[in-house]
Amino acid sequence: MATLRDLLYLVALAWWTGTAAYFGGSATPSVFARFGRTEAGQIVEVLFPGYYRTALATATLLVTVGAWRLAAGRPRAGLALALAVVMLAMALVGALVLQPRIHALRVQAAEAGPARPLPPAFGILHGLSVVASGVSVLAALASWAIIASAGL
To answer: Which residue spans traverse the membrane (predicted)?
Structure first.
């Protein structure tokens, strides 16, 4: 059982890390480099539901397995579980609060006409989304550091 538990933890953390690295480090910059700002924003917006589904699924698995690891007395399991909870919380805030509000502002601006700029609230929400993603990435990196220093 310990091998299964540790494998699930590693797979979930690697999956989350790979998704975040690809989305933030490759896909999004590539789309914005190729398309105009408005069109790129629309394309990336289409990708967000899949990104958040993956983040929610993997963070939920990390929390679940993290609780299992804590119950088994694994080294630094409490800290790893706390980091997984942070990752899940940031994914929930992004998926359920920030992204829907950002989408609503995009729709309102589009309905107002193509020359209408996005309202200032869009920039604030986008900034909060970037911060939430950054916090999640830091939590994932700290989780990898725990593995490197204390093992599974």
So the answer is: 7-25, 51-71, 78-98, 124-147
